[in-house]
Amino acid sequence: MSADDQPDVPAQRVENVRIEDEMEQSYIDYAMSVIVGRALPDARDGLKPVQRRILYAMHEAGVTSNAGHRKSSNIVGDTMGNYHPHGDSAIYDALARMAQEFSLRYPLIDGQGNFGSIDGDPPAAMRYTEARMAPLAEELLADIEEDTVDFSSNYDDRLTEPDVLPAKVPNLLLNGASGIAVGMSTNIPPHNLREIVDACIHVIDNPDCSVRDLIAGPDGDGPVKGPDFPTGANIVGREGIYDAYTTGRGRLRVRAEMDVERNDSGGDRIVISELPYQENKARRIERIAEDVTEGKIEGISDIRDESDREGVRVVIDLKRGANTDVVKNKLLESHLERTFSVISLALVDGQPRVLNLKELVEEYVDHRKEVVRRRTQFRLDEAEDRAHILEGRLVALDNVDGVVELIRNSEDRDAAKEGLQEEYDLTQDQSEHIVRMQLGSLTSMEAGEVQEEYEEVQATIERLETILADESELLGVIKSELREMREEYGDDRRTSIVEDYGSVTREDLIPDEDVVVVLTEEDYVKRMPLSEFDPQHRGGKGIIGVRPKDGDRVSTVFHASTHDSLMVFTNRGQVYRLKVYELPEMGRTARGTNAVNVLDLDSEEDVTAVVNLEELEADDGSYLAMATKNGYVKRTELSAFENVHSGGIRATKLEDGDRLVDVEVTDGDQDLVIGTRRGMTIRFDEDEARSMGRSARGVNGIKLQSGDQVAGIVATDDADDRDLLTVTRNGYGKRTALSEYRKQSRYGKGLVDIKTSERNGEACSLSAVSPGDGLVIMSESGQIMRTHVDEVSRQGRNTMGVKVMDLDEGDWVAGVDVVTERVDADESDAPEEATGDADADESGDE
User: Fold this and answer.
1) Are 518 and 490 in contact (CB under 8 A)?
2) At what angle do helices 413-424 and 428-436 cross, to 10 degrees?
3) At what angle do helices 357-398 and 413-424 cross, to 10 degrees?
4) Considering the chain, what percentage of its residues have pLDDT values greater than 90?
5) What is the mean pLDDT of residues 333-358?
6) Do the Cβ atoms of 663 and 626 come closer than 8 Å?
7) Whether residue 506 has pLDDT greater than 70
8) How far is Cα 403 from Cα 397, in angstroms, rounded to an integer?
9) Cα–Cα distance between 726 and 764 in angstroms, integer?
10) Cα dihedral sign, 21-24-30-32
């Protein structure tokens, strides 16, 4: 009969269930099966089921540390056939990991052959490798035959296996654990045996201690300094350690160990001797090489892996002139520092729990209490049984003639035993032992040995009963055994704890160098190394510094260091905070990138002034003096600009049609010098412009002629021996001693500073300069010229000046910035100071 012809058979019992309820329960059952049966370690012995079964199978097969190595395939086969029916690959992977010195702080398997490497190489096939238990693994199984732990039936009920190992050492904390279950995971770091044993003893002696009492560091003198990884390296900072130990969760920053050496060519080399835990060395070297090839890391000439059996040694040779600190920081940021997330999740009474350090120690100590108590009871029972037998032997020895006569006259063994029990009041076990005794054991020497053994057994019984009756005695046994483990297996720390000086920031990855920053009218911006522009003599054309797109022109140029923090002021009266290294570094011919990527500028908003915050302190009583196109001036305390956010804040209020043109820092006791496009200047005491808030407009600073507007502002005082450098749109300029500008009242017409003829064009820049300073001048078309202040003639007021930069027809000066003596002090081509020029045209004041 075919399958189609089979009659339908009704189900014996049908239950209606909600599918969501059934799926929920089935999923929970599956999840708990994975959690308990595979993924999570037991808090008592620190082992997952597969690890425990491997070690127990080796114990049963006699593959101990004193036996010869046995093929891994044999061990895997025994484990799979008897205890763990989940496939040989999972068992061999677990066995191999327990043999890897770079995975376990204290390996539990003594392997022979290729068990993988720190480079990510997989172990050889199980038929090629051999293994036996490491001595420490035997300590996990010590006393397992003495009823110290519970046993359960194996998967086919043929054998029994331990639910947990006796664990003479706190393996969970020593070797850590990692695993991903269903809906949860664990990641417990390894620790140093000496520290953890001391922590266990501390908790035994001080059960009411806090977690802090177990942690070493600035805030505690406990025994546990922190995790101790098998690969060494450094843990950065203690905050993550404290979080992990107090809450069971934390994030550790683990950093490679690096040293700087000199190579044969006289340059530096970075030598990596320790890598973060679970780091793949070969893959990390490959990725470093990729970044070098792609230009993400500069200054590296060669990378070599010189590692051997003794340890890791990766050599990174640097190019001549490379900044070693910058290369190290880039390596740390991208490759040699990683985060180890601690999740101290383990099984407690079959349920997953996140445990802090003290709870982990307590779970182990409670387990050892149970193990030692059960072991003591087992030994007591055996001792009492032996004492009982010895008591019978002593009775027989005391009545040797009668015992021999009774046995000889008995019909058989059973009759002899019954006769002994009746005649001498012996038990069945005692009479059985006496009947089986040899005649030679009835000698007087044997009698003395029996008496001695009986006394020893009685002393043992008394000692065991004391341990069971007094918990302090039991705890003393546990402490004594822990100290033995510390002496036998303890070693020095491998992982160091280093102070946290902050994460590697982007600033750490940028060399501290002087740069030129260029902005265009259409808000393109970039930075270039100042060293790309060699100083020229006055009247040069300079070299290309930027190629603006058609219709765009350079609006601003200034000099700064890549690590400088700047306040950037715009024509709209807004101020922004900017780190110079946030600006893109590009070549001289590049256009730049849109400033909106680094500054939140509005349409038609241009940068008009820059203040370097690295040279200032908000609480030193400084002021910012701001000048507008229409002649207004305002002073505001620098402290009002402490909280400049990314979107900028208002620096000053502006009338319709007015714009902010320049900002100068003052100390509150200086004079202000305001210059105009048509060459007029006025000098007055800054107190005449009282301090105002950021939202104020300010007061009149200079009375402008029709069509004139302010070009810049400078701060000076009576002791100032600097010069006022004025540069015009057509590339002419001059220096005049600031002392020649006499003080007047605010809101006057001022004095003539420079003639703004058709040759000169309007004044566009005012700067206070000292001999030896450098200048960076840029034209609107993108030419940059670097020269020295000493090249520009020192002249009186009301003169035309000399040619500073040779401009093409239709090109004009866009900006001038002073380069401090720090940069130009070593310039060998700095010319002698000029004191006059054929182009000079001096005349009297207006």
Assistant:
1) no
2) 120
3) 90
4) 67
5) 93
6) yes
7) no
8) 8
9) 8
10) negative
The pLDDT score that the predictor gives to residue 845 is 41
499-532 in b/e burial notation, b at 16+ Cβ within 10 A? eeeeebeeebbbbebbbbbbbbbbbbbbbbebee
Q: Which single residue is written with the structure tokens 């002496």?
A: 487
Residue 651 contacts residue 694 (beta carbons within 8 Å): yes
Length of the chain: 846
pLDDT score at 437:
85
Between vectors from CA 775 to CA 771 and to CA 778, what angle results, nearest 5°?
A: 160
Neighbour tally for 376: CB within 10 Å: 21
Residue 601's alpha-carbon distances to 523, 650, 687, 754, 799, in angstroms, are 8, 13, 33, 34, 39
- Name the CA radius of gyration of the chain, rounded: 44
Q: pTM of the predicted model, to two decimals?
A: 0.69
**DSSP 3-state assignment of 279?**
coil
Helix (H, G, I), strand (E, B) or coil at 170: coil
Domain extent listing, the chain: 47-166, 193-253+344-360, 255-340, 369-489, 511-824
**Coil, strand or helix at 380:** helix
d(CA 344, CA 339): 16
* pLDDT band at residue 523 using 50, 70 and 90 as cut-offs: confident
Cβ atoms of 366 and 405 closer than 8 Å: no
**Structure token pair of residue 38:** 């595979």
CB 680, CB 749: distance < 8 Å: yes
**What pLDDT score was predicted for residue 219?**
65
Tokens in use for 344? 């101290």
Just list the catalytic residues. 128
Facing residues of 675 across strands?
681, 712
**26: pLDDT confidence band, cut at 50, 70 and 90?**
confident
Structure-block tokens of residue 600: 């939140």
What is the pLDDT, as a whole number, of residue 319? 87
User: Is residue 348 within 8 Å of residue 43, measured between CB atoms?
Assistant: yes
Question: What CATH number is given for 47-166 in this structure?
Answer: 3.90.199.10
pLDDT in tens, 397-447: 888 888 888 988 888 889 999 998 988 899 999 999 988 888 777 776 678
CATH fold group of domain 511-824: Neuraminidase (2.120.10)
- Long-range contact list for 9-18, CB < 8 A, 24+ apart? none
CATH of 255-340, one of 3.30.720.120, 3.40.50.300, 3.30.1360.40, 3.40.220.10: 3.30.1360.40
Which residues have a Cβ under 8 Å from the Cβ of 595 and sit 6 or more positions away?
519, 523, 524, 525, 601, 607
Q: Which CATH number fits domain 369-489: 1.10.268.10, 3.30.190.30, 3.40.50.1580, 3.40.640.10?
A: 1.10.268.10
- Angstrom distance (rounded) from CA 599 to CA 582: 10
The sheet with strand 554-561 has its strands ordered as 554-561, 514-520, 524-529, 593-594
